[in-house]
């Protein structure tokens, strides 16, 4: 977003598969606009926030409004050359993947053009997979929410390390009824409030990058005392510290922020995610752990003896491959180490 919102027209995108969720999509759109109108006194009179319906139907036989989305995917502004009938694959899974990537590029284009103010979607299993992939690619702080039938299960695949919000639909997404109306109404009120709050406050998280040196630190219950001690020292020296719970996703979230430029230094005090990765566990990192820290050239346990050696070798191999070894320091706690 630009430094001023005066005389701007922002858009909130309401996203669903219109071939199966048209009634719900229209209800969502109307409700978002109604809530935005109620909140309008909180933003500049010269600033407009409009609602745009985005149809991401992956069914070739149902051709409604997908052409603009697919044009983003195929890199053309000529919608006459692009349509779901002659572009989408016959296989449903492949068609969903194409439409999901197309939606991601469409949203990015609107973000780059300083139009995107927020996005809300709804879907079952296919719709959630399609929409979430695109929404979680949006920057931190952009309001993004999905009403989903899958929101009460294991949602890590859909959210990743983003700030995407999932709201359980409670009932299946099949028409408007006394239950779904309450759920949808709460969801649209939430996204409308976030959009207006972001525009009126206009605090873009990217504007804080590099103003204060930021250090990412990994932590769990065992390392809390150590991390708190280090955090206090760094805070007094003027650093901002971001603490990440070493749950598998915590390490990934930290590395995502390293890649995005939010974090300028790393204290990887809690490397237990590596142990879970190597010997089995529910809080495991993946094989890319430490790679992005090394790529950004940012400096950067209780198991059996053999497992400790394997974990140490994993970390050492990553550090030895770094092109900025002079910026890396390995510190071992004087009173013991837990891997």
CATH topology of the largest domain: Rossmann fold
Distance between the termini: 43 Å
Q: Considering the protein shown, what is the CATH homologous superfamily of the largest domain? A: Uncharacterised protein family UPF0261, NN domain
The topology string of helices and strands comes to: EHEHHHEHEHEHEHEHEHHH
The CATH first-level class of the largest domain comes to Alpha Beta
List the keywords.
single chain, 339 residues, alpha/beta, Rossmann fold, 2 domains, five-stranded parallel sheet, three-stranded parallel sheet, 44% helix, 14% strand
Explain this structure to me?
The structure is a single chain. This protein is an alpha/beta fold and 339 residues long. The chain folds into two domains: 10-75 and 88-200, Uncharacterised protein family UPF0261, NN domain (Rossmann fold), CATH 3.40.50; 214-330, 3-Layer(aba) Sandwich (Rossmann fold), CATH 3.40.50.12030. It has helices spanning 18-39, 67-74, 84-87, 92-112, 125-135, 156-159, 178-201, 224-236, 249-260, 272-279, 291-295, 305-320; strands at 9-16, 48-55, 116-123, 144-148, 165-168, 214-219, 240-245, 265-267. It has a five-stranded parallel beta sheet, with helices on both faces. A three-stranded parallel beta sheet has the order 7-6-8, sandwiched between helices. α1 (18-39) packs across α7, α4 (92-112) runs parallel beside α5 and α10 packs across α12 (305-320). It starts with 8 loop residues before the first strand and ends in a 19-residue tail after the last helix. The mean pLDDT is 83.
